[in-house]
Amino acid sequence: STQLRKVIKTYPDPDTGGSVPVLDVDDLTIDQGAHIAIEGPSGSGKTTLLHILSGLILPDSGSVKILDTEIQQLGEAHRDRFRGRHIGYIFQSFNLLEGFTALENVMLGMMFGTGKTDRSRAARLLDTVGLANRLGYRPSQLSTGQQQRVCIARALANNPEIILADEPTGNLDPAASADVLNLLDEVTTGKTLVLVSHEHDVLMRYSSRISSLTFKTAEA
Prior knowledge:
alpha/beta; 7 helices
């Protein structure tokens, strides 16, 4: 399971010299294999929460336990390896490298987890997300929906147990959005999916069919 206990994160306030509370989570447990949506408006700390769950940033205090590992106690290099192996991250802004093809972007995702690449597996993942005929395309040659599919394939590169998705439909039109959500559910069967969104349609999909979590951040 994934557990946050008494997690607090603040950022410096350049105007006052003090600190601004961004995240205050008293107790959050996500069962392994659960699919949940976390709702909140822009600026409410949803991305900060995902960054903490993935070990990209550390909380000021509290415990972040992922798959029985307290990741806030790991050094940065160890934390990077843990994330590469166990956590797939789907970024809102895609974060694809323009100089590389779709296939190469997925293979780069493998490098961060195991240090090794598997070209045939990368091709199979892109086939799974419907891009078998786009392996050699660079991001600028792909639609936004196709770029998001590359991101999903990259997140699955090392067969992680946990997938974190930050506003995965935020840049998509309604048709592409529905396609991506259907695809996400399909490829994360048996995995933990934590999706953050402020879009009503996305949240309703998870609250009615799986489970929904409303999460409260500290007042800024």
